[in-house]
Specification:
By secondary structure, this protein is an alpha/beta fold. Helices cover about 45% and strands about 15% of the residues. Helix 5 (about 95-110) runs parallel beside helix 6. Bound molecules: nicotinamide-adenine-dinucleotide (NAD).
């Protein structure tokens, strides 16, 4: 099948590579010329496990092409997927500027039937707006071309995106037309062979399903962080509580890890956009507001622990930081908890020496010109001569460090662990002071 994908970011590239790998002819379009040039040379601009190999294999097989030429790309596809960014506008709503610009571009050049698919995360009513935009543009050209608009939200997780796309839990299709259901089923057939995972519903419910999923995940995280803060004050250990409640199948173990707050390109902006949609619809979304407020506070928890240990003034201190990406296996630092901590530390006069297995280049881009922020080549180099260590991302390589070496390298020596990676009693046996999240006062030696 012929597929055109607008937006060559995390979603567009993974979708394009996976659809090409199933034998489809895929053209990926982006307005970022430098990005397309790199992709056409075989360079993948983001870190996503397995993506380089998948893209290049399919590019070399002639099934996957990258271009800035929207006219040629629109001519190509029966399916026109929109997977451009929907960042937060100033008022918190999802900025649909890119999505509607793509709709106009498609309508300006389309000459035969196509299915326009909104894969970007978009508020309820967006498919209607895309439909209206295409109709308006076609009318202004005096053209009559048939088309359908389908909602097909994406649920992939950065860091495990290829597996998620190749073996999805579900494929949600929002449509009001049986013809598109069959075409969408044919597109996804290779990925749902083992049993039918296509969930077909009306367009508005499909659009809301994506926000509901992310809001639920954010709620689980904020709930556990709330509990962690209570545990810490009443002398309980949240890690024991986590296991105690996760064993209940109605609750489950997934996504109930306390930590330094949620970040990334999706949960923060999607919860904010849902709050905004609710407000516009005349409903006060109290749970969602609390989820946001708890998360904003949680991102500052490590900083407050550092201040409680060293005193309010941090001038002259150097903090080693392990982890910059918002989660492991990605270089994405959008809204990452590390950024809140770095900003607060720098503002308080401290220096930061950070290490991340893949996000170093992204951090250097974000903090270019900030002399108090440096990036180390490895975890121990970051710790060398630093006063204390803060852990912000739970990369596998941080899970079993050489604590003796750390004690020698760190001046203080203190660890502020925002991901509860270690057994507090074990760390203290090595002579390190250890602060974790939600692990009662008596444990925080
Ligand atoms: N990143 C994720 O994990 C994830 C998961 C599920 C859903 N989503 C949603 O998918 C959408 C895309 O997210 P992303 O992380 O891939 O974004 P991204 O920022 O990584 O990529 C977006 C791309 O779109 C391009 N673009 C912008 N306007 C364009 C236009 N008019 N024509 C062609 N290309 C254009 C940009 O240059 C950029 O390369 C968002 O709505 C996001 O919420 C993201």
């Amino acid at each position: 099948m012929r597929v055109t994908i607008f937006g060559s970011g995390y979603v567009g590239l993974v979708t394009g590579a996976c659809l090409a790998d199933a034998g489809n002819q895929v053209v990926c379009v982006d307005i970022d010329g430098a990005k397309i040039e790199r992709l056409s040379r075989g360079e993948v601009p983001i870190h996503e496990p397995g993506l380089d190999e998948l893209i290049n294999r399919n590019r070399e097989a002639g099934r996957l092409e990258f271009t800035t030429d929207a006219v040629k790309a629109i001519e190509h596809g029966l399916f026109q997927l929109i997977s451009v960014g929907t960042p937060s506008a100033e008022d918190g709503s999802a900025d649909l500027g890119h999505v509607l610009a793509v709709a106009r571009t498609i309508a300006t050049h389309m000459s035969r039937y196509c299915i326009v698919i909104t894969k970007s995360t978009v508020p309820v009513g967006t498919a209607d707006k895309v439909h209206a935009e295409i109709e308006r543009t076609l009318a202004s050209r005096g053209a009559k071309v048939e088309f359908d608009v389908v909602s097909n939200p994406e649920f992939l997780k950065e860091g495990a995106a290829i597996g998620d796309f190749m073996k999805p839990d579900r494929v949600v299709i929002g449509t009001d037309n049986p013809r598109t259901t069959e075409l969408m089923r044919a597109l996804y057939e290779p990925f749902i062979r083992n049993h039918d995972r296509l969930i077909v519903m009306d367009i508005r419910s499909s659009e809301l399903t994506k926000y509901a999923a992310n809001a639920m995940l954010a709620t689980k995280i904020s709930f556990m962080n709330e509990l962690a803060n209570i545990a810490e004050r009443v002398g309980a250990d949240i890690e024991k509580v986590r296991i105690g409640i996760g064993s209940d199948p109605r609750i489950g173990y997934a996504f109930i890890y306390p930590g330094a707050g949620y970040g990334g390109s999706c949960l923060p902006k999607d919860v904010t956009a849902l709050v905004r949609s609710a407000d516009e619809a005349g409903h006060d979304p109290q749970i969602l507001r609390a989820v946001q407020a708890v998360n904003t506070r949680q991102k500052e928890v490590l900083f407050h622990k550092i201040q409680r240990h060293f005193g309010p003034k941090l001038e002259g201190l150097t903090l080693a930081m392990w982890g910059l990406a918002f989660k492991p296996h990605t270089d994405d630092m959008r809204e990452a908890p590390s950024r809140t901590l770095i900003d607060l530390l720098l503002k308080a006069g401290a220096r930061v020496k950070a290490y991340d297995p893949v996000a170093a280049a992204e951090a250097q881009r974000i903090y270019a010109g900030e002399s108090a922020f440096t990036v180390a080549r490895n975890a121990y180099q970051a710790a060398e001569g630093a006063d204390a260590l803060a852990i912000v991302t739970e990369w596998q390589e941080f899970r079993s460090p050489d604590f003796e070496r750390l004690r020698e390298l760190l001046k203080a020596p203190v660890i502020f662990d925002g991901r509860n990676l270690y057994d507090p009693a074990m760390v203290s046996r090595f002579g390190l002071t250890y602060y974790a999240i939600g692990r009662g006062k008596r444990l925080a030696v």
